[in-house]
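Here is one such protein, fold included:

. . .
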Amino acid sequence: MSAPIFSAAPVTLEQELHRINTTLVPQHQFLEALTQLMLLAKEHVADAQLWLLIGHVYTRMAHWTDAIAALETAIALNPQLHAANRLRALALFSMGQQQQACDLIDKVVKKSSESGDWMLRAYLHAHTSRDPMKALQVARDWGKRFADPLTRNAKPLKVADRNPRKRLKVGYVTADFREHSVAFFMQPVLEHHNPNDVEVHVYSNGPSDQVTTQMRALVPHWHEIQADSDETVCEKIRQDCIDVLVDLSGFTHGHRLGVFARRAAPVQVTWLGYMQTLGMKAMDYRLVDMGIAPPSHAPHYSETLFYLKGMASYAPPAYAPLCEEPPMLRNEYPTLISLNNSGKITDEMLRIWARILREREDARLLILVKEQSPEAAISHMQPRVEAAGMPCERVSVLHQQPLNQFMEMGHIADIALDTSPISGGTTTLHTLWMGMPIVTLNAQRGVEASTARMLRGILAACGEVAENDQAYIDAVLKLMNAPQRLKQLRYESRDLLRKSVLMDYVTRTAELEKSYRFMWLNYLSGKQKNLSINANLQQALTELGAAA
């Protein structure tokens, strides 16, 4: 008698969507995800959840126009689909429609109890409003609803080894130890940590690439946590007896703030990944320097500010061929370029650039955007370029470039244009490494003027800091009329960067470890007394020993 044959149950649409969203999307296999979703759409064209996921994938690809179309389809099929409006707000923001995005997300949260909706609201308002207290308010709106209740209900944290001089266990939580801006700041730190003073753990919550492989080789204890819940990760970190836990994501994709909210470690600090405040009580410190957040700005943050002499280190990409002469010398016309994340390019910024092009009629402008295909890039930016009154025949829109091609932009452009109100960060340093000067607008808050803060001291010769729109325009025009200065900077910029605090890796990392020690001592004493790298560490250790 033959064995009975059991046929597998048919896979439902819900199961297929779950599979794509939990396997392909987290690994950044967006094109494959989109291909499978479009095949499903042939048979399920009226399913709102399907169109929501299509919109989500387009959003992750930075194809904003396509994302909005898919999300509007989802909303038409199900007007109660708040997640679609949340993603739509992000797409509007990334297309330069910041106020419309803020208005939409405000409407979404009125009917939402989802952490992601409130977090996105905090992100959008913090990057739109010039009022720092507004950024704090919207961050706390998220924190008090979602993070702080977890902190109040967390299991007590037991710290067995309270030795003030012990080798500290330091944990970094990130999704960005890959080809990402955070990696350019963190690789020199991992390379120069002193194993006698700190035991380094990394809790990685993102996909891997060749940069991940390089960074993993520098870390004695590497933990993959992408598949684990916040509760599981928190317990893992507690079992590892981490003393100082460092968040490198903030409100950006791949964060694990739920782990910090559950009080995974006695000292918890945020750094680098997100420059605005988080509004959560469990984040004890924020690492800053005087340029980014002077003491008078402390009321703008929910975290206690701890001051380093220099906020970060910078490691330039391995491939960065220097073009020794500005291209305008061979082209016989100047080329300007915007290299920042296109979400930072406001319509007002485009109008300023249009005024520059009208003043200098032979100048060209290249605008690099986040979209991954030429068609998506033009679809997003070209209508905005036209609306700003730019001479379109002298403006080119480029889609997102691989890092190696990005670092060749100095071969086709002469001068970089920074954005406002949110300026460049890693992009500014890449620009200077390419030998291009950069023109930026100053701002009161360091988080809005990181480029301006970089262009001081030894790097002052590498660009121009303008106090208003007209001064910005004048500075660009002046540089275009100074080809010899541009040529000189091609030779000098890299040497100036090498001599700056940004590339003094040994000193920066030693200061970082010292800051962790001070935070640990503060924890042991129960007082946030030492809040600067300039404090006397030996005295702090002596005082704690006497108190014990």
User: Anything to note?
Assistant: Residues 399 and 541 are 53 Å apart (CA to CA). The mean pLDDT is 93.
